[in-house]
Specification:
The chain has a 7-stranded mixed beta sheet with strand order 2-8-7-6-5-3-4, with helices on both faces. A 3-stranded antiparallel beta sheet has the order 9-12-11, covered by helices on one side. The chain folds into 2 domains: 8-45 and 271-362, Aspartate Aminotransferase, domain 1 (Alpha-Beta Complex), CATH 3.90.1150; 47-267, Type I PLP-dependent aspartate aminotransferase-like (Major domain) (Aspartate Aminotransferase, domain 2, 3-Layer(aba) Sandwich). Helix 4 packs parallel to helix 10 (258-267) and helix 7 runs parallel beside helix 8 (173-182). With 363 residues, the chain is an alpha/beta fold. Helix content is 39%, strand content 14%. It has 13 helices and 12 strands.
Length: 363
């Protein structure tokens, strides 16, 4: 009898999102829970984006613009590129799926970093694609020379997250340039910069400075974090016009809703919201790094909006006890870090509550 699904689907472990507040309160019989699990914006969505959504809602009986014409051009202007080099998707996840579907075949392979963003692995396996996982080096950092060495003639995709999720670490300009110079042009290098707006490091390499020199480079970015639009599902990529054209052939029609397009255009003008979010995040992150280290955790310097927290002991029981105290964090056992939690930066009072709760659990 023929199996219902292929082996690669049968053995696929699905991506498990952060636990919702409502589910936690219902399950544990508590109220007033706080969520520091999904790297969401602690200040909420861009006010300008919300105003645009409210206006656009009056027209949702119409199909959206299938080409996202105005959003693409506004993004191109914002980044200093041409519209033909911009691709927009239903979150960065859709673009990741499309890159796999468009630029690989079942005979091809991909290279990823072990312990990095789980959706690279999930998306590759769901398409039946083989991949090589390269371990991180010390300090929870990408080992780019080892990843370059793992690229073989069958390699057609390489995924890099900078800053990384879930560790928050980042690599610098010289490291990236050496990697780009080593990998053959037949391999598409996907540089995921979902958290780039939070980086406060002069040596941080923006992918926009490299994608024309290395046409096999694709840069991914998102509205989910600094603009606070995770629920809208809006991501974008910058790449050669040729590759962008191929993605537009394979994407589904109307992949961006009317509301997402309106929100994306407006949010780019919300300079004040971006500035305040960045300042709030940096302040909260430094507090968490200091206090978590005081509690005995190992916390690498983060360039994102969360703190990767190695407790030196099994994190599962700690995660459960924090839930009972109404504090939702993200256990990292699914990423291969059974002793770690990922803790998002929240408003100041929530960060303090997390530290107090964790101190109680560990104490």
């Amino acid at each position: 009898m023929r199996p219902v699904v292929a082996d690669y689907i049968e053995t696929l472990s699905p991506y498990v999102p952060g636990k919702p507040i409502e589910e936690t309160e219902r399950e544990y019989g508590i109220t007033g829970a706080i969520k520091l699990a999904s790297n969401e914006n602690p200040l909420g969505p861009s006010p300008l984006a919300i105003e645009a959504i409210e206006r656009a809602a009056r027209s949702v009986h119409l199909y959206p613009d299938g080409t996202s014409y105005h959003l693409v051009r506004r993004l191109a202007e914002h980044m200093g590129v041409v519209p033909g080099e911009v691709f927009v998707g239903n979150g960065s996840n859709e673009i990741i799926e499309l890159l796999i579907r468009t630029f690989t075949t079942p005979d091809d392979e991909a290279v990823i970093c072990q312990g990095s963003f789980l959706m690279y692995k999930v998306a590759l396996q769901s398409h039946g694609r083989r991949f090589v996982e390269v371990p991180m080096r010390s300090g929870y950092r990408y080992d780019l020379p080892a990843m370059a060495a793992a690229v073989k003639p069958r390699t057609r995709l390489v995924f890099l997250a900078n800053p990384d999720n879930p560790t928050g670490t980042a690599f610098g300009k010289a490291e990236l340039e050496a990697f780009l110079s080593t990998v053959p042009p037949e391999a598409v290098i996907v540089l995921d910069e979902a958290y780039f707006e939070y980086v406060d490091w002069a040596d941080y390499p923006s992918g926009l400075d490299y994608f024309r020199r290395w046409p096999n480079l694709v840069v991914l970015r998102t509205y989910s974090k600094i603009y606070g639009l995770a629920g809208v599902r809006l991501g974008y990529g910058v790449m050669s016009a040729e590759r962008c054209g191929y993605l537009n052939r394979t994407r589904m029609p109307f992949n961006l809703s009317f509301l997402a397009q309106a929100a994306g255009i407006a949010a780019l003008d919300d300079v004040e919201h971006v500035r305040t979010t960045r300042e709030t995040t940096h302040r909260g992150l430094r507090y968490l790094e200091r206090e978590l280290a005081r509690l005995g955790a190992q916390v690498p310097k983060s360039y994102a909006n969360f703190a990767f927290t190695d407790l030196g002991r099994s994190a599962g029981p700690v995660y459960e006890q924090l839930l009972r105290l109404g504090v939702i964090t993200r256990p990292m056992n699914g990423y291969g870090f059974p002793n770690a939690l990922r803790i998002s930066v929240g408003p100041g009072s929530q960060n303090e509550r997390l530290v107090a709760a964790l101190g109680e659990v560990l104490g």
